[in-house]
Amino acid sequence: MKKRFLMTLMTLTIAIIAMAQRSITGKVIENDSQDPVAQTTVRLLKTDSTMVKGVLTDLNGQFSLKAPATGRYIIQVTCVGFKTYTKRINVTADKNVALGTIALSPDAIMLKGATVTGHAAKVTVKADTFVYNASAYRTPEGSVVEELVRRLPGAQVDDSGKITINGKEVKKILIDGKEFMTGDTKTAMKNLPTSIVERVRAYDQKSDQARVTGIDDGEEETVLDFGVKKGMNHGQMLNVNLGAGTKDRYSNRAFGGTQSKDLKAFGMMSANNVNDMGFPGGGGGRFGGGRQGLTATKMVGFNLNYEIPDKLILDGSVRWNHSDGDAYVLKSTENFLSGTASTFGNSRNQNYTRSNNWDVRMRLEWTPDSMTNIMFRPHFTYGSNDGLSKGYSLTFDDDPYTYGNDPLNNDELVEAMRNDGLVKNRNNDNSLSYSDSKNAGAKLQMNRKLNANGRNVTLTLGANYGDGMSKSFTNSMVEYFQLLNSAGSDSTYQANRYAVTPTTNWNYSIKALYSEPILPKTYLQFSYQYQYKYSKSDRGTYDLSNINANFFDVDADYRQWDSYLSFLGNASLDNYRDNKLSRYSEYKNYIHTADVMLRVIKKDYNFNVGVQVVPQKSHFVQDYQSVHTDTTRTVTNVTPTADFRWKISKLSQLRFTYRGSTSQPSMTDLLDITDDSNPLNVKKGNPGLKPSFTQNFRLFYNNYIQNHQRSIMAHLMFSTTDNSISNMVTYDKTTGGRTTRPENINGNWNAFGMFMFNTAIDTAAYFNVNTFTTVNYSNSVGYVSVDKADSQKSTTRTTNLSERIAASYRNDWLEFELNGSLSYMHARSKLQANNNLDTWTFSYGASLMLTAPWGTQLSSGLNMNSRRGFSDSSMNTNELIWNAQLSQSFLRGNALTVSLQLYDILHQQSTFSRTVNAMQRADTEYNAITNYAMLTASYRLNIFGGKSSMRGPHDNRRGMRGPGFGGGFGGPRRF
Questions:
Q1: Ramachandran area for residue 2 (φ above 0: left; ψ -120 to 50: alpha; else beta)
Q2: Could you say which DSSP state residue 403 is in?
Q3: Which residues lie across from 333 on neighbouring strands?
Q4: Is the dihedral of CA 567, 571, 574, 576 positive or negative?
Q5: DSSP secondary structure string, 573-627?
Q6: Measured distance CA(191)–CA(392) in Å, rounded
Q7: Residue whose C-alpha is closest to residue 968's, from 467, 438, 282
Q8: What is the pLDDT of residues 407-453, one digit of tens each?
Q9: Strand 22-30 relative to strand 97-104, pairing
Q10: How many CA atoms lie within 13 A of 173 on its CB side?
Q11: Taking the CA of residue 444 as centre, how many other CA atoms within 13 Å lie in the half-sphere pointing to its CB?
């Protein structure tokens, strides 16, 4: 009885306390644009300014908090770039407090040197949109958005600049929803400064057609949308970063622009020789990667966005890129031949490259009335590429590392293995190359809404034209140690060839689409498209192998063809034309595409299902290897699709997609021709190839729990291919050469899973934890045979597991983070069990950043990178990577910042990587400069609202991390 009385009393007490807590609600917007202001700090204070509670506004600018008791309080709303809003309120017991709409006014004075005093959530989610708060991912002063994106949970940027977020490749970059440097995400990522970014939104943008018609067609592309800080999107800005370092390193960048309600114009330029790793001084972040040789780049770009609301949109960009590359590559391979046999190869290549590229794009969208939309997208590109290459390689019957180290420079090792009959061949090759290309094209889309219920008709026209020219000179000499000539000596093969290849291509298309509403929010969509594609290539090959001259003694520079052709003397080049190796080809493709789709678009879910039928006819003409080919092929591809999206809530969704696609073998693969122009890599065609059919299944779930600032994402994918086309490789045990012939094979499939979890531990978000996990399982199959014996099916099953985890604490002057990553590879080969792998790559460490009120910052990062499980013990290494940075800000508003950055202080970073598939294991290492110091000066001049504010480095962040990780070995060879 006593216990029951106490329980009743406790329940009543809790109920009374809950009833006494009255809700305080409101919405925060920007006064000028009337846009909602997300992630704004709202505090409930006592009358003596003691903090009671605090919350952040959601994506719609709305907030809600509860007062613990009745009485008088102060509501305070703060946001960087705006004047602080305060209001006294009285909370009574009989009603909630509705503050309505709170409009914040820009504060130019605050923009000079404001600091955030709230702790915004790192990640928020709304339906299919992930919103990352930029201030929660601190980056070095002067950095660009690539460095910011690398730190986002679920994001990856590879060595080529390819961006993936939550498992999907990013195709476009936007600024405040406007297209930015369309067609080139890399330029945008490496030039947009993080200092102007307030948030990053990642989502799937609808196609031009879906956006105009209002009917989701399932054709989406993943975009990153960078939101400019409130108060900085009206006015002018200029950011200049100049850096000079030891070992002749430099990094310079400038970004400026003007923004108004209707116009955004940005100009940018950069020049650096630190592999353009994201911010002055370079950086990276991935163990064993990020530095594939040395690269010096220059870039100039301009981007324009102009809009008359509901009438006209004009987007345009112009870009010039130049790069010089110096890649020194060491590679060790093992080719799987049978259950007990392998061949081993070691190679060394020195590659110099130079490129120039121009890119001009525009989008003009006109809406003459509410029912009509016309969109025009023209583009023009021009590019040229130069290359110089020198290579040296050896092929063995046994692993050379069991006989010693460095087989490429160890003559005693090679001689000993040669005496044992274990060296197959030695190859020296040089090449000089040049190519250029010009392309122009346009797309015109016209849409007319026939009623307000979704009846649409769309007509799309497209055309492209391009031509190009390529030249190359190659000279190679192969020594066969197991193939004797008529004199009983080792055989030698030498080839010196010059090739000139002009190309022309053009195409046009016309597409009509009609959408008919058959039920409320239910549509049938029909479309038909006709495409014509034409391409022509006419390669002339000139064989100079019989000229008595040592072509290997030539030290040519870019485009110095006369260095080689001078050996002709007075003879005409036409006298050396090799009609067998010369190749003329002409390709015409007539493609018809018919679609029928059922689309259901409801409030709580979307559902699309349909089928695409693609009949096409190809006409191919070729003269090659003394064989004239004139053939026509007619095929039909069928592609079923399904897409279901359940909108569980405003913050959560579940999505399932299915795509099936048929792929036809290329015409050249179908031709029964043997190409033996390279005796170590002979290629054959196969007229019996069948089309392959690939099925892709994808399941995606995300949720956001606002009360705990907790975001969750899960992603599952499965892909399988029937009749996939794989190269059957036949190895010649005597020469070490290989002959490849495409064959159909079944058994290739892949499964992938991903999970992301990010949460604040405490209510004020001082402590945060995030984890990102991926699991990939692949079944890779291929054919291998030795000396024309019956081919064997080579199957390799590989499991890759990776984990990234970080826990951090941050306040106004300190950020400390513990981080770790793990990558595990489990590979099993059915053909050769002795080549099974269990390798581990893991990293763990910490970063610390301290900020002083007088503008000094000290940051440092220390990580141990380790490898285990590699058969070569020299690869099982520990690399302790230490980077540090010290910066000081000067002038009014901290407009000028000088920083000293130190990279790989302990000289331990490397650039080793390993890949494994059904046919081969390959270990690769590149040259790089990882240990250097960089002195950087960063200056900002920003004018907002007619007032000048020289904004310093601590504008929106309470600090930054030290430099990222570099990688590599060796030194520069050309710059």
A1: alpha
A2: T
A3: 345, 922
A4: negative
A5: GGGGB-TTT-EEEEEEEEEEEEEEEEEEE-SSEEEEEEEEEEEEEEEEEEEETTE
A6: 38
A7: 282
A8: 999 989 988 998 888 898 899 999 999 999 999 999 999 999 898 88
A9: parallel
A10: 22
A11: 4
- CA 47 to CA 44: how far, in whole Å? 10
pLDDT tens for 8-30 read: 545 544 444 444 467 888 998 88
The DSSP secondary-structure symbol of 276 reads T
Kind of pairing between the strands at 738-745 and 681-684? parallel
Greatest Cα-to-Cα distance within the chain, rounded to the nearest angstrom = 119
**pLDDT tens-digit series, residues 171-221:** 888 888 888 888 778 877 888 888 788 888 888 888 787 777 766 666 778
CA distance 131 to 390: 48
The tokens describing 872, both together, are 């070569």
Predicted TM-score of the model (pTM): 0.76
From its phi and psi, is residue 20 left (phi > 0), alpha (psi between -120 and 50) or beta?
alpha
Rounded CA-CA distance 305/309 in Å is 12
CB of 241 within 8 A of CB of 250? no
Q: pLDDT digit string (tens) for 607-642?
A: 999 998 989 898 989 898 888 888 888 888 888 899
Residues 6+ apart with CB under 8 A from 913: 288, 289, 923, 924, 925
Average pLDDT over residues 63-90: 84
- Amino acid at site 714: A
Query: How many Cβ atoms sit within 10 Å of the Cβ of residue 539?
Result: 17
DSSP bridge partners of 54: 43
Confidence of residue 323 (pLDDT cuts 50, 70, 90): very high
Coil/strand/helix, residue 549 = coil
**Which DSSP category does 134 fall into?**
G
User: What is the pLDDT, as a whole number, of residue 506?
Assistant: 96
Share of the chain above pLDDT 90, in %: 29
User: Do 841 and 833 meet the contact criterion of CB atoms below 8 Å apart?
Assistant: no
CA distance 868 to 351: 31
Residue ranges of alpha helices (H) inside 161-215 are 185-189, 208-213
Residue carrying structure tokens 């079923």: 640
Lookup: tokens for 650? 């405003």
Position 473 pLDDT exceeds 90: yes
Q: Are 700 and 755 in contact (CB under 8 A)?
A: no
* E strands in 485-580: 490-519, 522-543
Closest CA to 669 of 651, 688, 696: 688
Per-residue model confidence (pLDDT) at position 215: 65
pLDDT, position 216: 63
d(CA 146, CA 138): 12
Which pLDDT value is given to residue 851?
A: 81
State the burial class of residue 93 (Cβ atoms within 10 Å of its Cβ: 0-12, 13-18, 19+): exposed
Least reliable range by pLDDT among 28-32, 458-462, 566-570, 617-621: 28-32
Q: How far is CA 933 from CA 283, 640, 859, 929, 936, in A?
A: 12, 56, 15, 11, 10
* pLDDT band, residue 921 (cuts 50/70/90): confident
